[in-house]
Structure prediction request, 258 residues.
Amino acid sequence: MSLLQRSLVAQAVAREAGVLMRRRFEHRDGLGFTFKGHQDYLTEVDGEVERLVMSRLAEACPKDGFIGEETGGQPAASVWIVDPIDGTANFARGVPHFCISIAFVRNDLIEIGVIFDPMLDEMFVARRGAGATLNGVPMRVASTASIESATIEVGWNMRSGIPAFVALVERVTATGAGLIRCGSGALGIAYVAAGRTDGYVENHMQPWDALAALVMVTEAGGRTNEFLRGDGLSRGNAVIATTPDLAAVLETASGIAF
Prediction:
C-alpha cells in the first residue's frame, strides 16, 4: 500500500473515531475516569477508541505494526503510532479541546501524520515530502519574526518533574514571549504548523503525543528536533517545534537542541 493510500486510510479511521469520541463526550452522564499517574487521566473511551483504530488499521494494513498509548506494541520497520484521545484530561472534565493522533513511521522516518479534532471538525494531515493541510487547505507556519511578539505553548507533565517544568517556563518567559498551555500536545504542535501559534516546547513527550504533529510542522515550513533519535520511539523525547525565525532563540531558551 502506498503512503498516499495509507494517509487516506488514516484520515477515514480518524474521522470514524472522532464521531465516536464526540458522541461519548456529548453524552457524558456516568462517564468515569481514573488516573494512570499523577494528573494522567484515563477514561473508558480511550480504550474504546484505540480498539476501533487498531482494528481498522489491521484490516487495511495487516503487515504494519501498531503501537497505542493504551495497548502498547512493539517497534517495527513499518508501524502506526496512535493516541486515541490526546487531551484526555480535557475530555474527562468537559473541555472540548482534544483529538485523535495517528502517525505512520517507516524505517525511522515519520511518513504520515493525521490529527482530527472532532469538536471543531478539523482534520490536520501531513505526508513527508507532500506538504501539510488543514481541511484540505495548505498549512504554513507563522511569519512572526520577533520572540516578543510570539505565542509559545509550553507542554507539561510530571515525567520530568516540577522543577524542570518551572525552569522551562521561566526561561521561555524571560524571552518576552507570551505563554499558553491548552492541554493537548498533539494539537499544540499542530497549531504551530497551522500558524496559530509560533512554537511549542516540552521537556518530554511520548511518541504517540508528538509524532503526527511534528511532521506537520516540518512540512509546513517549520523546524523541529529529531524526536526519534536516542530511542525516541520507545522512550519518548523532548520536543521543540517552531518557526524558522524563532528557532535560535527558542532553542537557547528551552535548552532543547534541534
In short: The chain has a mean pLDDT of 92. Helices lie at 3-26, 44-60, 88-93, 162-173, 185-193, 207-219, 232-235, 247-254.
